[in-house]
């Protein structure tokens, strides 16, 4: 059977061998607090490349030390981080995967010591710290940090860059009126709340001409929050700025109860794909080959991001291929037992 899941996909000149993407997942596993790639990363990510994942997105990687979720997060805030990523990228590529990195800043959700930053001085909940409202120079420095991160990612050899604008981290905090109550040009109207992301995209695009993805939370799950309709409009702006794909997640902006079930975020990916005429990635409780194929065939998304199922089973592409009756090439070392 011919499937879409196992057919190649080309985006801005980069060809993935299939439509299976390893979703970015923090490992909180740096060996010290230096943000550098360690042994864990060098085993964990290349294993999924051996497992025949088409594109591996390395976890949220902090563009500033203060923008880490935890002190063991990966970082890309200095040139000293480049060589570790170079090694990691070449290990993944050796096994035929394309590589991406998610550039991130945790904003008010940072749990590191020292000052934490956000558009407005509002804590996520009563257990989390109150962030400092960013000044104009904080904003400029952070945009510069995203650009520096992109330049270093390029030097490390990544094929694709993803900007993390989801899950209530810094960029998402600017986008949502629930977390952004600024009175200046970065707050208020939808256009003003988009300004920070817009400037981050432009800054990254100055140094990066490869495929650019942005991950969004397409619903705040709150009566006064953003909905997928707002994100269709934001996606149109992103497309005009040269973003190639929207990776569509949801929630985590404010504490909210979310009813989750298989494929629960897929309708958001579908709405943005058709509403903004841009490629999308679907993610969230996608665990079977048939489910993935359904999403692609019905043109609900262009790529399938798999998170936890790839933690449980690094050879998930093989499992999905068997389910769909497709033969995929085994790594040569495993040919006798694939
Ligand atoms: C995540 N997720 C996540 N998302 C993101 O954009 N950047 C990140 O670094 C992380 N980190 C992370 C760590 C761990 C351990 C998990 C389980 C999840 C969310 C993840 O990418 C994915 O969107 C969700 O897990 C939903 O997909 P699955 O797991 O249902 O396939």
Automatic annotation (TrEMBL):
It is an enzyme of class 1 (oxidoreductase). One of its GO terms (molecular function) is NADPH dehydrogenase activity. Transmembrane segments: none annotated. One of its GO terms (biological process) is response to toxic substance. Its EC number is 1.6.99.1. SUPFAM superfamilies: FMN-linked oxidoreductases (SSF51395). It catalyses: A + NADPH + H(+) = AH2 + NADP(+). InterPro entries: Aldolase_TIM, NADPH_DH_bac, OxRdtase_FMN_N, YqjM-like. Substrate binds at residues 28, 164-167. FMN binds at residues 23-26, 60, 102, 215, 307-308. Residues 5-324 form the NADH:flavin oxidoreductase/NADH oxidase N-terminal domain. Keywords: Detoxification, Flavoprotein, FMN, NADP, Oxidoreductase. It comes from the Bacteria. Pfam families: Oxidored_FMN (PF00724). The keyword Plastid does not apply. Homotetramer. This is NADPH dehydrogenase. The gene is namA.
